[in-house]
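input
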Amino acid sequence: MTVYYGSEGDISFYYNGKFIVSRPLTKKKTPKYYFDKAEELLIEGLTSGESLIDLRKRMLRFIKRYSSETKYWRDIELQTPTDRDMFFYTGLMLIKLKVIEADGETEGILISKPKNGNRRNQ
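output
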């Protein structure tokens, strides 16, 4: 997996001690931006008629399947920024629902500031 740095650093999601996905931080895409977007998606899912329990189970099953050791999932690279965003939002929604700890020992998020201003790749 690749770490995607923005002008303000990056925010990374971990699950079961494994790095899963990172998203760039910029002046517009702050941690608050990502958390707000995840909350919007969660509300959208709930207003579409899904139960909270079903949403939580589906998101957790997706995270577990993707982070498993099976060859199929291990070889998948999230191809587009939209793919990476949706996976990241799934992790943030699980944090919002308190299924995953934001600063847990083996799961959660890590916010990193840029080491220098020249480092960007998406």
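quick obs: The helical segments are 31-47, 52-66, 71-75, 81-96.
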